[in-house]
Design brief:
Elements: E1 4-11, H1 29-37, E2 39-41, E3 44-45, H2 51-60, H3 64-67, H4 83-91, E4 94-99, H5 112-119, E5 130-133, H6 143-151, E6 173-174, E7 179-180, H7 193-206, E8 214-223, H8 252-260, H9 264-271, H10 291-321, E9 328-334, H11 354-357, E10 358-359, E11 362-364, E12 374-376, E13 380-381, H12 385-393, H13 410-413, E14 418-427, E15 430-439, E16 442-447, E17 458-462, H14 480-493
Helix pairs in contact: 4-12, 7-10
Length: 508
């Protein structure tokens, strides 16, 4: 019997969402305990800041340029490498994914991932022997939605409808402030998808033999928008009592000043002049966001994160009850971040700043491994997860993996210098292409030639002196030498391209 692996992911969670990373409003004791007894990586970056590309990187251990999922709506090939398949074939690990997968576009019903619930099938798929899938709400083909429609049809209309009849993001808002994608959800907590994911994970674990090794990916759809947690739980945080986030500049004048120093699509989206953020409702204009609306969204996000923490606690209790605690590695992270008011914005898109790139990342090694609790500030990324799973399982990393196992101590951390992030998008005839390097406390983003840019534009931030990334130093003469050095390093670290972009088959 070897080490077991519980891989816990959320969707669209900021680095500062948990107590271990400075959160003072949401209570996250279970996740904080993982950080206290494990390794808290304080500079982990996503390799892309939307769902599908980031999740493809997690399962393959490859950069976007290699696995080819360059934006949402582009499916990961069915025969793409999978660390789950590797663990199953090499070490006979039992493998399961429960919750949100999103390797295939939600609106593509030709994809097996999206037919499984309709067909009442549970895999195998992508190296997982068992899959039970959920998304954001009670409609659609996923197992969770089908279960709700079959067992509790009365709650189906309680959730916010993410997409309208044209299959684009809805822009209406309800709640107390009318904030975009906010809705009071009368679904009982025990029927909400966060609790469902935990319950189905517990059921799967309890069905395993005590001596089996397993790799279980428990993937929560929250705190991703829409902001509609169970109404019974929203009393946890009163939005009227909380401050606006530190990254919210406040006045329109201050927001205008900050965004005017960034490449043009930042301000153009904020004002509604040009829609470049395909993950946001096209009819919503960010400059319309009020401070009360932001507070309500922030409060509901905190509620969602508390529910996730309680779900994690439930699953960890099951691990302990089965006698697996000493030999179970737990990795907790997310796919990407959320603006959540930073720069006066919501959602995410073609913007490489900490709000979206910087991830919570905790590895609680199995106590039997004897790895000391610590905080590691060295740069790491999602591309490193697959090799880490291999290291835990005692399997050599596959030749197709492009990352390295996460550092376990100061000596290994000292070998880490930088982390790389990519972005490509084409939306409404508008293309944006970004390549970003974080190194030595600096973040640089080079803009490739696109429909909006000629390839000379970019962003440069000194996080030691400007942690909110309000001051773009790209054209600042005092930072010219650092800019040249970082650009040279960025170009040297770019992964090989897999060739022409594959076709996008669905919006999400």
């Amino acid at each position: 019997m070897g080490r077991k692996i519980l891989f816990i992911t959320t969707d669209q969670m900021r680095f500062d969402a948990i107590g271990a990373n400075g959160q003072k409003i949401a209570r996250t004791p279970a996740i904080d305990a993982l950080a206290k007894t494990g390794i808290n990586y304080t500079r982990c970056h996503a390799q892309n800041v939307v769902c599908m590309p980031a999740r493809a990187t997690m399962i393959t251990g490859q950069y976007l340029s290699t696995h080819g999922v360059w934006m949402n709506g582009v499916p990961l090939p069915v025969d793409a490498p999978s660390v789950a398949r590797l663990l199953h074939e090499k070490k006979n690990y039992r493998t399961a994914l429960i919750g949100k997968a999103h390797f295939e576009p939600f609106l593509d019903l030709s994809a097996y991932e999206n037919r499984m619930g309709i067909q009442n099938e549970f895999g195998p798929h992508r190296g997982f022997e068992h899959m039970e899938l959920a998304a954001h709400g009670a409609r659609g083909p996923m197992h969770y939605a089908r279960w709700l429609m079959n067992e509790h049809p009365e709650v189906a209309d309680n959730f916010y409808p993410v997409l309208n009849a044209q299959f684009v993001q809805n822009s209406f808002g309800e709640g107390d402030t009318g904030a975009v994608q906010v809705k009071h959800n009368n679904t009982p907590r025990e029927l909400y998808h966060t609790d469902w994911v935990a319950e189905r994970t517990v059921a799967y674990l309890n069905g395993l033999d005590a001596n089996e090794d397993w790799f279980v990916w428990m993937s929560f759809p929250d705190p991703h928008h829409p902001w509609d947690p169970p109404q019974s739980e929203i009393h946890r945080v009163n939005w009227r009592d909380i401050p606006v986030p530190a990254g919210y500049p406040g006045s329109h004048e201050k927001i205008d000043e900050i965004l005017s120093a960034k490449p043009r699509h930042w301000k153009e989206w904020w004002t509604g002049e040009r829609m470049t953020c395909f993950e946001a409702p096209p009819e919503w204009v960010p400059s319309s966001l009020t401070t009360d609306q932001l507070r309500e969204i922030d409060a509901l996000t905190h509620v969602k994160n508390e529910l996730i923490d309680e779900a994690v606690a439930k699953v960890m209790a099951t691990v302990a009850a089965r006698g697996w605690e000493a030999d179970t590695d737990v990795i907790f992270t997310t796919d990407h971040g959320e603006f959540q008011g930073d720069f006066g914005l919501l959602f995410k898109g073609p913007h490489h700043v900490d709000s979206l790139m910087h991830l919570p990342m905790i590895w609680r090694p199995a106590p039997s491994a004897g790895i000391a609790p610590q905080t590691i500030a060295a740069p790491v990324g999602q591309v490193d997860f697959a090799p880490t799973f291999c290291q835990i399982a005692g399997v050599a990393p596959a030749e197709w993996m492009e990352g390295s196992a996460l550092p376990r101590n100061a000596a290994e951390a000292g070998k880490r210098e930088a982390v790389f992030t990519e972005w490509d998008s084409e939306f409404n005839g508008i293309s944006v292409s970004l390549r970003t390097l974080h190194r030595d406390g600096w973040t640089i983003t080079a803009y490739n030639k696109s429909s909006l840019y000629d390839g000379t534009e970019g962003e440069l931030y000194d996080l030691a002196n400007d942690p909110l990334q309000w001051r773009n130093l790209w054209d600042d003469p005092s930072a010219a030498a650092m800019k040249r050095d970082l650009l040279d390093d960025l170009r040297a670290r770019m992964p090989k391209s897999a060739g022409e972009h594959r076709k996008r088959v669905a919006p999400v």
